[in-house]
Amino acid sequence: MPAVAEGEAGVRVRYVALCGSDLKLYAGTYKAPHTYPVVLGHEWVGEIERLTPAAAAAGWKMGETVTGDCSIFCGDCAGCAKDPNHCLTIEKRGITRDGGCAQHIALPCRHLHRCPGGADSKPYTLTEPISVAVQGILNRVPHERLGAARNALIAGCGGIGISALLALLGFEIPSITIVDPVAAKTALVSSFRLGNVVTAAEWPAYGSFDLIVEASGSPESLKRAMSLAATRGTIVCLGHQGAVELNCGALIQKSLTIVGSIGSSGGFDQAIEIIQAHADLVARMITRIVPLSQAEAFFRDELHCGVNVKVLINLDA
Fold first, then answer.
1. Measured at the alpha carbon of residue 315, what is the angle toward residues 304 and 157, in degrees to the nearest 5?
2. CATH class of 8-131+264-314
């Protein structure tokens, strides 16, 4: 049981979701700052089980369902004044600091977010990846531009790509295409039966998209996005990118806007609202639940299978 400092809450974690960062950390191929040894887990849900007097005075209650920020930000520096994802002393839970894949954790209450109570808390395990989409799209692109989009394209049908789709549903974009070569993933999106959404295994050969969300992390994907973007189109980069050679002629000739975004802090409250509005779709993003007793074998034998959208570890089983 970790010690709970003043202003913190002790949380009993129920579920942890895995993402591409976890896969790379396990494989030893993660390129961004990280620390070993480390307890994985930056997408999780649980209940408050211990409170300090200051946390109780701030209105937190025992038994509340909560999730938490991946970013550990100070809230006081010049970076935080602009965006907590750019805190000058930022650390990442589950990446540079121990994360949520433990039955008991303690963290500052300013990093906690309340989730609506109910019998099934599993969908709220995905609050963090949906927050990535909220932060990159809804908090960075003017809403009037999103509302005016006639068509959109999402590259990547993993957790972030589908989260981007959910974030865009409120804008009633007439046509949204989501592209991924893995048939199981596009089949999942097709099962949502959204009238304005089509799936494809390959990029369109031609087109003119007002909004493109790059959520695959592929350099080639970003190049294709620039060729298919409409005049005065917007490209949002959510996939992790290294060095990419781009056609700046297209950038200028089309008057494109390219938006980069990192992190999820600032998007949690809206993400929770999206989960409330589309709980059935979010629940379907969970394509595998692994009991804690089988987690070691899963990491060893199945982590790289590539067909799952979101895998949850059940810390109670």
1. 35
2. alpha beta
